[in-house]
Amino acid sequence: MTLTKESFHGALPPTSEVTKADMDSTREKEEALLQSVTTSGAVVPRKRAVGRLVMHSMAMFGREFCYAVEAAFVTPVLLSVGLPKNLYSLVWLISPILGFVLQPVVGSASDHCTCSWGRRRPYILGLGIIMLLGMALYLNGDMMISAFVGERDNRRTWAIVITMLGVVLFDFAADFIDGPIKAYLFDVCSHQDKEKGLHYHALFTGLGGALGYLTGAMDWGQTVLGYSLASEFQVIFFFAALVFLVCLTVHLHSIPEVPLRYRNEETKILLEVTESYKYSSIEEEIKNGYLKSTCTEIKAAAKPGKCAVMSHTEDQRRMTLKSLLKTLLSMPSHYRYLCVSHLFGWMAFLSNMLFFTDFMGQVVYQGSPYAPHNSTLYLTYKTGVEVGCWGLCINAVSSSVYSYLQKILLPYIGLKGLYFIGYLLFGLGTGFIGLFPNVYSTLALCSLFGVMSSTLYTVPFHLIAEYHREEESLKLQDGEQAGEHRRGKGIDCAALTCMVQLAQIILGVGLGLLVSVAGSAVTVISASTVALIGCCFVAFCVRYVE
User: Fold this and answer.
1) Transport as a keyword (predicted)?
2) DSSP secondary-structure letter at 523?
3) 3-state secondary structure string, 349-392?
C-alpha cells in the first residue's frame, strides 16, 4: 500500500473518538522506534540507560586495547622480518595519508546511508573487520608466508610486504573507526547523554590501553598458550582478536539506530499532522495511537534487509571529492578553529608518545639501541624501554581517572576550562621531563599524558555537539525544520578526526629528521612547545557555546 498525505489525513479519526485504551504491545514497539518530535520539528532522542552507554563505549575499549598491542609489538615485528630502515617512514605515512583523503568521504557517505541497520553501524562493522584483518597480517604474516613460500629470499620479501600491508590496514581502520563511533553516539543520544557517553568513551579508552600495555608486558612464552601456539605474537593476536570481537559485538547491539528512511518519512508525517490538526503535542498523538497504522505501513513499504549506501535521490547528488572539499572549506570559522586546535593537540601528543620509550632508554637511562645486544649499554636501553612501557600504562590509567573527574569539573570550569587545563598540564609536564630527565619524576609526570589523552577524546567532540545543538535552535527560531543541515554530524566528526592523520603526516615527515639530528630529547621539547602554542589557541580562538 502506498501511503499518501490524503490517505493519511483521511484515516485520522476525530479527536473525541480516540482514547488511550487501545495502546497495546505493537504500539509500544513502534514508540520504541520513534523519537520524540516536538511541534517545531526538533528530533530529540529519548534518554538512554547508563548500561547502554557503557555498552556503546566498549568499542573504544577494544580499539585502544589493539592500539596498545600494536604500539608494543609492531616495531619488534617489523625488525624480525627484516624491514629496511628506509621503509619505516613509508609504513607510518601511507595510512595517515589515506585517512586524511578518505575520512571525509566516508563521513559524508555515512550521513546518507539508508541501510535498514542504521547509518553508522555498517561502517563500524566493516572497519572492525579490516582492523582484525590487518592485525592478523602483521602479527602472523611471517608464519603465514613461511607455510606457502619455500625459497628464503622470496619468503623474506613477501613477509615484509604482508607485514607492511597489515600495519597499514590496521592503522587505517583503527583511525577511521573513531569518526563513525562518535557520530553514532550523537545520532542516538540526547545532549545530556552525549556528555555522559563521551566521558564513558574516554574512561574505557584508558582502561583498554592500560590492559593492552599490560598484556604486551607479560612473558607469554612460558605459559600454556605460549607452548601451544607457534610464537608469542600468535598468543597476543589471540587475546587481542578475542577482546576486540567481544567489544565490537557488544557495541553494535548497544543502542538501536533509526534507519535514515524511517527517520525522514516519520518526521515528515508527524509534522504534517501537527500543521493540519494543531493538536496539543505530537507526543500525545503518538500515545493516542494516531500513528499506529501509519508507522506500520511505512515499515511494510520499506523492504527489510535491503542495505543501500545511498537512496535513489541521494544517488543523483552524490558528493565527489571536489564538492566534498568545497563543503569542508565552507564550514563556519569556529569549526575550522576547532580543527586547528585539535591538530595542535594531536601533534603535541603524538610527538611525545611515538618516541617516549626510546626517550626513556636513550635519555633517561643513558643506554644505546645501536650497541651490541650483549653489551651493558644495550641492556640498559632495553630496561629503559620496558620502564617506558609502564609509563604508558600510567598514562592510560590516568586517562580513565581524569575522564571521570571531567564530569565533576565541567559544571565549575566549563568546556573552555577543561580544554585549556588539558593542554597546559601536558605542555608543562613534557617540558619538565625534557629539562629534568629523571626516572621517578618522569613516571610521575606520565599521569599528565592521560589528562591530555582524555581531553582530546572528549572536549572537541563535545564542542561539535554544542555547535550542532545551537544550529538546530537557530533554525527552529527561523521556522525551519531542525536537522536540515548541509553537513551532517558524520562529516563534522570526520573532519575533526582527519586532524589526527594530518598530525601523523606532519610528524612523519618532520620529526624523524629532527630526531636523527638532535636525538630523542627533541621529541618532548617539541611536544611541550606545540602544546603551549595550542593552549593559547584554545584560550583565544576556539568558540564556546554559552
Assistant:
1) yes
2) H
3) HHHHHCCHHHHHHHHHCCCCCCCCCCCHHHHHHHHHHHHHHHHH
DSSP secondary structure, 327-339, as one string: HHHTS-HHHHHHH
DSSP-assigned letter for residue 450: H
Q: Which three cell numbers stand for residue 358?
A: 626510546
What are the grid coordinates assigned to 165, written together? 600491508
Distances (CA, A) of 465 to 56, 62, 415: 17, 24, 12
Superfamily of domain 322-478+487-545 in CATH is MFS general substrate transporter like domains (1.20.1250.20)
Q: What's the grid cell of residue 271? A: 509534522
What are the residues whose beta carbons fall under 8 Å from the beta carbon of 451, sequence distance 6 or more?
Answer: 398, 399, 402, 421, 422, 425, 426
**Which grid cell is 94?**
601511507
CA 202/CA 128 separation, integer angstroms: 19
Distances from the Cα of 517 to the Cα of 362, 512, 522, angstroms: 14, 9, 9
Closest CA to 31 of 297, 295, 299, 303: 295
Question: CA dihedral in degrees (15, 21, 23, 24; nearest 10)?
Answer: -150
Report which DSSP code applies to 256: P
Give burial (CB, 10 Å; 0-12/13-18/19+) of 62: buried
Summarised one tens digit per residue, pLDDT across range 31-49 is 444 444 443 444 567 788 8
Q: Are strands 43-44 and 36-37 parallel, antiparallel or unpaired?
A: antiparallel
pLDDT tens digits along 440-459: 999 999 999 999 988 998 89
Tell me where in the chain the CATH 1.20.1250.20 domain(s) lie: 50-262, 322-478+487-545
Phi and psi of 119, rounded to 5°?
-85, -35
| Sequence letter at residue 293 | S
Alpha-carbon distance 1 to 4, whole Å?
Answer: 9
Cell matching residue 508? 612523519
Inter-axis angle of helices 439-477 and 191-217, to 10 degrees? 150
Q: How far apart are CA 23 and CA 38, in angstroms?
A: 21
Interhelix angle 121-148/152-176, rounded to 10 degrees, is: 170
Cell of 261: 528512511
The DSSP 8-state label assigned to residue 117 in this structure reads T
| Distance in angstroms (rounded) separating the CA atoms of residues 108 and 95 | 20
Maximal CA-CA distance, the chain: 92
Question: Would you say residue 14 has pLDDT above 70?
Answer: no
* Strand (E) or helix (H) holding 285: helix 282-288
Question: Are 303 and 114 within 8 A, CB to CB?
Answer: no
Q: Which of 61-65, 184-188, 205-209, 378-382 has the lowest mean pLDDT?
A: 378-382
What is the identity of the amino acid at 310? M
Cβ contact 110:299 at 8 Å: no
SS3 per-residue string spanning 468-482: HHHHHHHHHHCCCCC
Rounded to two decimals, what is the model's pTM?
0.67
